[in-house]
Amino acid sequence: MPGLGCRTFLKILDKSSPEQVFSDSTAALTALGLKSNIIAAIQSFDWNLVETDLSWLAQPNNDVITLLDPLYPPQLKETYDPPPLLFLRGNKHLLSRPQIAIVGSRNPSREGRQIAYEFAYSLAQDGFTITSGLALGIDAASHEGALKATGHTVAVAGTGLDRVYPASHKALATEIVTHGVMVSEFPPGTVAKASNFPRRNRIISGLCLGLLVVEAARESGSLITARLALEQNREVFAIPGSINNPLARGCNALIREGATLVETTEDIFKELSQYNQLYSLKPATNNQTELDLAQQKLLNLVMFSPTSVDILVDESGYSAEVVSSMLLILELYGYISAAPGGGYLRTK
């Protein structure tokens, strides 16, 4: 309905039902507090529009849940303006699982993209569902990391689910539907518009227990999502970066404003420890049994004094690319830290 937002919809649900509204008189609709333009839209509604939705819902893997459905995610329901309807493709039960949202730049650095991927991979292995917005850059890396870990991921779209935006992510969207769930408050047929994405962002933050920002400029949509998360009483985490990196300035600003500085996934687990038993999450550990044999081999080559990457490549026999990837994993788990002037040193 034109002019009918989520808050007005919630007010109607407090006093009536969608079914009742369509048979109410003008006086009854006025008594609900509805404005004349909304009343006119209700009384002249074109029911042919519903046929598009019903045709979409008849297709495999497609579904919709209402605010009154037992499967409606409780985290989202408690927010200021939860969507009355959620259109879904995939496993709708994942929406009630514990989620960490990961957001950031659409044009991240190579390191930023890798960090998002590795954090998503690790958190998914530990039992979290990874939530993001299917955008280019950090969003895509987060979905891919969760899928690589054979975990679950939620993609919140800013369009109807009969289309994929950006179009280059069609293959990724298909994989998410198979191993996770796509969700949108927008009905089929809704195209990508700039105004849709701030609305999409409040769902990303509303679904999660905590939100991690990996790379973000000072004027970034990711910071809007982070501030929405704070308003929704979610934990906000940020990866710090160099003061000379424009993509780190948003994260650094969040940290100054009170976001939790994150260097490893263990930092996130500590902040969310109250949820570990509630959701049967895997607790963060320091056991080296969580490493595979190749990672353990590389860790054994890292000294408690600065060790150069070149030495690690020579002594391990692995390629520079493989060593760099494993070093990032070891750093995320807290086994090593970057040394001044390059290289790494072992911390435990």
Explain what the structure shows:
By secondary structure, the protein is α/β, with parallel strands linked by helices. Helix content is 42%, strand content 13%. The protein is built from 16 helices and eleven strands. The protein has helices at residues 6-15, 18-21, 26-31, 36-43, 48-57, 74-77, 110-125, 138-148, 170-179, 196-207, 221-231, 249-256, 265-271, 293-301, 309-316, 320-332, and strands spanning 62-66, 85-90, 99-103, 129-132, 153-156, 181-184, 210-213, 235-238, 260-261, 336-338, 344-346. The strands form two sheets. A nine-stranded mixed β-sheet has the order 1-2-6-5-4-3-7-8-9, with helices on both faces. It is elongated. The termini are far apart. 39% of the residues are buried. The model is unreliable at 284-288 (pLDDT under 50).
